[in-house]
Amino acid sequence: MAIKGEGQFGALAMRLAHAGGLTSVARWIGAGQGCLVNFHRVSHAVAWPGLPNREFHIDAAFLGQLLDHVAGSGWDVVTLDDALVRIRSGEGRRFVNFSVDDVYRDTIEVALPVFRSRGVPVTLFVTTGIPDGTVTLWQAGLETMLLDRDRVALADGRDADAGSAEAKRRLCRQLAAAWEDDAPELQYRRFCALNGCDPAALHHRHAASWAMLEAVRDDPCVEIGGHTVSHARLSALPLEDARREIMGCRARLQDRLGCPVRHFAFPYGRRGDCGGREFDLAREAGFATAATTRRGLVGAGDRARLHALPRNTLNGAHRHVSQAEMHLSGLGGLLARAMRAT
Ligand SMILES: [Zn+2]
């Protein structure tokens, strides 16, 4: 079959997933023992439609539906420790591991209760600069400022309309794109000053704190993993800096939380963001596994690639279980590989 584009293949895959159900489609593909799934922010369903950067958030009601669907389809939701045992042995039922990257306040306050209420685990990949206050959460801060205002002052002296959800989304997109490649933290601080906002207060509003992490570290539904110190794109760093990002994050988490930290996730995680050097560094730092965001399922073949595991990202565009099934069935990974081959 000629593959003309992701849309065409994706629509077919979704129809297959929808018609056959998760387990049968996975069996039809015949590859992979489990699936790693990650996301970033979670919002309450009622707030999601009005969020200026809603692509970055999944809604908590959808997350609950997805967990129920996975359990109803006979998959086990497991920690990465458990997934590792299954990958090594090749035994056990099909599994899904859910992980949340970065770890904002809403991970603890909104996402975790969804997992807890169903008695299933979630892995939290913590960027230690967030609770340490050394990473500027400029996208979250920008989004909040737009949510809280009907007009905002811009650096060029203009006063921009932010009175509707559409205007907030447009401004969020435009400002983030304009700042992204040119010292976004600095531009964000200027924007805060122009609009009378305190960046420290905004950070507190969005960041998970060490106290929050201490409160959940012994929760049977929580597994703590590492996600660098500063959320750096590791492939862009000199070797020693990349090593410090990976090792420093593990040391800080173990020191501050006193719990084992056996798993790592690469920031961004796509081809070009991490490769052989970074996989070796994660192994050298003592992590048992490291996950990318390259789509696909995990299975016996990954025993030799435990520091380059595929992982599938959910975002705000995922509104229905059938869309998530693309990843869980392995169709998303097949699609990604097919698109690279064409
Ligand atoms: Zn991240």
Quaternary state, please?
single chain
Low-confidence stretches: 1-6
Mean pLDDT: 90
CATH superfamily of the largest domain: Glycoside hydrolase/deacetylase
Question: Any key phrases for this structure?
Answer:
342 residues, alpha/beta, TIM Barrel, six-stranded parallel beta sheet, two-stranded parallel ribbon, binds zinc ion
Summarize the SSE layout with pairings.
Elements: H1 6-20, H2 22-29, E1 34-39, E2 41-43, E3 57-59, H3 60-72, E4 76-77, H4 80-89, E5 95-102, H5 105-118, E6 122-126, H6 129-132, H7 138-148, E7 151-153, E8 159-161, H8 165-180, H9 184-194, H10 199-206, H11 210-216, E9 222-226, H12 239-257, E10 263-265, H13 276-284, E11 289-291, E12 312-313, H14 321-328, H15 331-341
Parallel strand pairs: 1-5, 1-12, 2-3, 4-5, 5-6, 6-9, 10-11
Antiparallel strand pairs: 7-8
Helix pairs in contact: 1-2, 1-14, 1-15, 3-5, 7-8, 7-9, 7-10, 8-9, 12-13
The protein binds zinc ion.
Could you characterize the architecture of this molecule?
- With 342 residues, this protein is of the alpha/beta class.
- It has 2 domains: 33-135 and 207-328, Alpha-Beta Barrel (TIM Barrel); 138-203, no CATH class.
- It has helices at 6-20, 22-29, 60-72, 80-89, 105-118, 129-132, 138-148, 165-180, 184-194, 199-206, 210-216, 239-257, 276-284, 321-328, 331-341; strands spanning 34-39, 41-43, 57-59, 76-77, 95-102, 122-126, 151-153, 159-161, 222-226, 263-265, 289-291, 312-313.
- The strands form 4 sheets. Strands 1, 4, 5, 6, 9 and 12 form a 6-stranded parallel sheet that branches. Strands 2-3 form a two-stranded parallel ribbon. The chain has a two-stranded antiparallel sheet with strand order 7-8.
- The structure holds zinc ion.
